[in-house]
Amino acid sequence: MPFPLIHHPGYTIDLPTNHPFPMAKFRVLKEQLRKESAGQASHWLIPAPVAESDLRRVHTHDYLQRFLTGKLDDAAQRRSGFRWSEELVERTRLEVGGTLLTVEAALENGLACNTAGGTHHAHADAASGYCLLNDLAVAAAHALARRWVKRILIVDLDVHQGDGTALIFRDDDRVFTFSMHGAENFPARKQQSDLDVPLPRGTKDEDYLAILDAHLSKLLDQIAPDLVIYDAGVDVHADDRLGHLALSDEGLMRRDAYVIRLCREADTPIAAVIGGGYDRDLVALANRHAQLHRAAYRYWLEQR
Ligand SMILES: [Zn+2]
After folding, report:
1. Which residues of the chain have pLDDT under 50?
2. 141 Cβ partners below 8 Å, 6+ apart?
3. How does pLDDT run across 244-299, given as a tens digit for each residue?
4. How much is the pLDDT for 103?
5. Cα(233) to centroid(ligand 1), Å
6. pLDDT at position 15, please?
7. What is the DSSP track for 166-229?
8. Collapsing DSSP states into helix, strand and coil, what is residue 294?
9. Given this model, what pLDDT does residue 14 score?
């Protein structure tokens, strides 16, 4: 079985957006991976747009109606960071479909990586911070509803707190939300995850990795999840334009390799998404995101 990577043709669509950074990172990442062994040796899976019935497990009927049919008011569009268009809906549904497919591929193969995903600020009833639909939550709810798994651990290492996901699963014991993020980063008003680990501004590789190590192995032991959904946001990098932490390229690689190894050694399937990352230099940014796929591919090879 080749290494499963999930690709989104929808992400090459240029969208009207208020986003301060170009959204073409998805295309650049894909091009970069295609050139590398991690991409060349991969089985590229292409998702279908997520069904409305899958979205309804997480999002309210009212919000879905407004988002899917273009009835978000100006304030809601501003909060989302996007101007509404049919292409936006199509692309967003593909993205969520991609994380569903990543979960399915991970449960089948032990490990699968998305080349997009991680829209963790989306709430059940509202878009927020460039996140329209919560792919992590929809994919988790889908796996539970299909009875593929009983217990899920969401490991959210994006520099921003996974506030939408935390709130969606606040009263659901089947999903444990773990968010390790910059204490001073967006959102200003944090929600309560099952475990939050806020980090001080400027946290570097060694401290970051030691803190992660202190929590993650314990969580895997205590929770014994049937699936880990991993948000590998690279906005923890020192050069990120929005994050306040200070990881190096090597630190990112070590982090992702560590999370993958720990989960797989516990025999837990891991479905990884790329999460946030903000830089006007798209090649440098794609290179940061590609660390996840390189780390996963390296582990994959070792296990053959
Ligand atoms: Zn982020």
Report:
1. 10-16
2. 54, 57, 58
3. 999 999 999 999 999 999 999 999 999 999 999 999 899 999 999 999 999 999 99
4. 96
5. 6
6. 46
7. HHHTTT-TTEEEEEEEETTSSPSS----SEEEEE-TT--HHHHHHHHHHHHHHHHHHH--SEEE
8. helix
9. 43
Measured CA to CA, the distance from residue 295 to residue 88 in angstroms comes to: 31
Cα 93 from chain centroid? 15
- Tens-digit pLDDT profile for residues 210-246: 999 999 999 999 999 999 999 999 999 999 999 999 9
Q: Report angle CA 183, 262, 248 to the nearest 5 degrees.
A: 45
* Long-range contacts of residues 33-40, Cβ cutoff 8 Å, at least 24 apart: 33/5, 33/115, 33/290, 33/293, 36/290, 36/293, 36/294, 37/297, 38/3, 38/5, 38/290, 38/293, 38/294, 38/296, 38/297, 39/5, 39/293
User: Minimal CA–CA distance to 272: which of 287, 290, 245, 286?
Assistant: 290
Q: How far is the CA of 159 from the centre of ligand 1 (A)?
A: 5
Cα 147 to ligand 1 centre (Å) = 30
Note whether 8 and 94 are within 8 A (CB). yes
CA distance between the termini of the chain: 10
Residues 160/120, Cβ–Cβ less than 8 Å? yes
Question: What confidence score (pLDDT) does residue 185 get?
Answer: 92
Q: What token pair was written down for 251?
A: 């630190």
297 Cα: distance to centroid of ligand 1 (angstroms): 24
Distance of CA 39 to the CA centre of its chain: 19
Residue 185 CA to ligand 1 centre (angstroms)? 9
Distance of CA 288 to the CA centre of its chain: 14
